[in-house]
Amino acid sequence: TELGHGTFIRGLETTCTYDPENEEFILNSPTLTSYKWWPGGLGHSCNYAIVLAQLYTQGIRCGIHPFIVQLRDSETWMPMPGIKIGEIGSKMGMNSVNNGYLAFNNVRLPRMQMLMKNAKVHKDGTYEKSPNEKLTYSTMILTRVLIVKSLVTSFLKQSATIAVRYSAIRRQSELKSGEREPQILDYQTQQYKLFPVIASSLVYVCAAKWLWDKFSAVTSKLERVDLDQLPELHAMACCLKAVGTADASISVTSCRLACGGHGYMNCSNFPNIYSLITATETYEGENTVLLLQTARFLIKSYETIQMGNNVSTLEMMYLENYNSLKQFPWKTTLDCMTNAFFQVAGSKIDDCYFTIKRLIDSGMAQEDAWNRTSIKLTQASEAHCRAFVISTYIKTLKTNQFSPELMDVLTQLGELICAQWILCRVGDFLQHSNLKPINVHSIQCLLEDSLERIRPNAVGLVDSFDIPDEVLDSALGAYDGNVYERLLAEANKSPLNKEPVNRSFELYIKPFLKSNV
């Protein structure tokens, strides 16, 4: 990432020019916008970096390549000659991480400090291309995979655990006059805020497992330069990162609000969790840009079908027959709802494809036609992602041996998340699936029934995540349930409570009270 460029890697401005006489590369930051910006630990902690720069050799620009660069002296920690380095300043969160900026002024690197597993620069400056340029970009997929696998699922689980445990302790108002105040977890509105977060954490766990297995399978073939499945992996990593982080951010906020004013306290740990998860919506690819990258793969896949060919992966085969699913009557079952998600995704991709085609046929440039359709393209990518997430969860239920009791609970969670996602986008399902207006009531009933059936197991479900108190770091969500004792203990740690009368009284309040104002 540079000050002037983020997701658009090909637009990076840092240059690395080969000097064959000395067998060295010369690294430069030619503009202010070419400053490297954001890498964690760069400000003060790191003394080496892998730097992506535009390679020039024999007067030819050869594209983005990686170079290993020493930033600081290993003894004194002072910046190396030609290195300008610093910390970028305060952020919305993660301020314990010294994110940095970096600029180069004629920094010379030995030739062998170019990472040359794929592309190479020989001693005389001859450039040897990579067998496939996609190999260079494949490593960038890993971080997006890990965001889904480790961060999205983790923060969903943490937030649900804190809020559900708190809601089991907190009592508020009267449902019936004269009776004890109920646990707020018994209120349907509270359940609606929290139980879908539990369900989301599980469906994204299943999707993340598929993504990790896919990544492992695809990268194991890269040594043989077998790149057939790399485009699909890239597309799925992009949309799962985009949709997953967006959903997680909304879910964390929902859990915080479910805890009322106490959720606003730092000791609830929601402010910290929110600052961490919301950052994932922009780093390693801004979410809208990633959805558009997924859309390119979807449109190409649909074009393949329109030309009379079959798509090569199971995950895309629904594009060949999604319309046929619409002829079946609606049933509020997991299978029927899963099919509806595919109908919506397929119809939205179809709409995008023919919109772009119509604009191009009318004389518009392809790039302009794409931009004119970009809102619908992001919506199509999101629909594809949700269909994939739901179907992966259902496949997990069908292909694993669970006890009848556990299967019942997992099915309830699947029905809940399906119902919620459909009702939140009911216009799409009425327009693009076999759902009819008369069927919407049955989905609302399923959602409400799911909440009621999940309630007895809600605390047990979040306890099953087995997150240690040290990780939760929350006065509201500790396993022992001592919410109020912990809140008071945290309050007493405030520096303002070190003395009964703060010095501001003597300095400002007392003189004011004794004045004639």
From TrEMBL:
One GO MF term: FAD binding
Main location: other
Localisation per UniProt entry: Peroxisome
Pfam families in UniProt: ACOX (PF01756), ACOX_C_alpha1 (PF22924), Acyl-CoA_dh_M (PF02770)
Necessary cofactors: FAD
Family: Belongs to the acyl-CoA oxidase family.
One of the GO BP terms on file: fatty acid beta-oxidation using acyl-CoA oxidase
Taxonomic lineage from the root: Eukaryota, Metazoa, Ecdysozoa, Arthropoda, Hexapoda
Residue ranges annotated for the Acyl-CoA oxidase C-alpha1 domain, each copy included: 137-299
Protein name: Putative peroxisomal acyl-coenzyme A oxidase 1 isoform X2
Key words of the record: FAD, Fatty acid metabolism, Flavoprotein, Lipid metabolism, Oxidoreductase, Peroxisome
Pathway linked to the protein: Lipid metabolism; peroxisomal fatty acid beta-oxidation
GO cellular component: peroxisome
Residues covered by the Acyl-CoA oxidase/dehydrogenase middle domain: 1-107
Highest rank taxon of the organism: Eukaryota
Domain Acyl-CoA oxidase C-terminal: 334-514
